Amino acid sequence: MVDMEDEDLLAALGVEVAPLNTGSHTPQEERLIAGFEDILRFVKTHGRAPEHGEERDIFERLYAVRLDRLRALTSAHPLLAPLDTHGLLAASSSRTTPEVADGLDDEALLAELSLAGDGGSDDITQLRHVRSFEERKAAEDIANRTKCEDFERFQPLFERVENDLKSGVRRTLRFGRDASVAEGNFFILGGQVVYVAEMGETFRTPNGEPDARLRVIFSNGTESNLLQRSLQRALYKDETGRRITDADAGPLFADKMEPDDIVHGTIYVLRSLSDHPFVAEHRELIHKIGITGGKVETRIANAATDATYLLAKVEIVATYVLSNLNRTRLENLFHRIFQEARLDLTIEDRFGNPVQPREWFLVPLHVIDEAVRRIQDGSITDYVYAASQAALVRR
């Protein structure tokens, strides 16, 4: 057969083609078409029209209600007839109109269908919030999770992120300031921490936008195989959706000052001159790490009467001058890095009350020096302190 265009072939068969007058629909007509297209997609997927019944899922029952009302709205038939390849508008309803709600109260049904206008009218032409196919697919993808069989691989990552958030090394930002989604990113969605474990090759959607298939792990031990844009839409819609920042040194030495920042600061390392037996025995290893915006000498002037300094004089063994320093975050970072080597020592203050200083660590001076350098260049996030080796080691 000679190749023929679709229009020529239909003409040869005696079929008259009446092209749709696209681009001239009113917003009201476009809403009607969008609502009917949802029903057509259902028919294409299931091979039948949507039906009423308690055993049907909520979307099928809603589509059945919508179809009944479109059938009753004869004024919309000329608009929808060119789309009605299955003869849906001509078929009769499986139930009478008073029963189409199928157990749903009017308010809940109309709210879901967005049929109610400002005056409470149930006119089908008031359909205003018909969810697009993409939006519904995104919601289904997020909800359709399975058990993560290798969750033990990812659990340490979630624990580390939780600790980083507590110590201030990471922060949470409202999703949208940065709407990107990439492999290795962490988010908060629906009250759970979400980790993008894998990202497939990028492809183009029908409207030309980039997308990719993701493997997403949730902190409750489940996972979902969903599209990048589905995750983005879910994060946008979730009022509590947040991005968890990377654990880098940016917030510690940033260009933008924050309330707890100091323009110029000094990290100082002290060694105690206490005659406490344990301190005296390990004096070369026991160090206090602190931060001040003023002179270190002024800070330690009253060390002998302050339990924070073990009620003894101290000597300064190292200082590091830095700019645009967030004191709280940096102190928390040091404490997190060396938490396994924190000095477990209780002394009595001047009033006889037991005190356990928290800023003293059994760490060699050269390791502290290395930690400061790695904080400055941002590589500290790849290291932890191994007390058994007295060294910083890669995670």
TrEMBL record:
It holds the Pfam family MUG113. SMART domains: T5orf172. It comes from the Bacteria. Residues 281-375 form the Bacteriophage T5 Orf172 DNA-binding domain. InterPro entries: Phage_T5_Orf172_DNA-bd. This is T5orf172 domain-containing protein. It comes from Variovorax beijingensis.
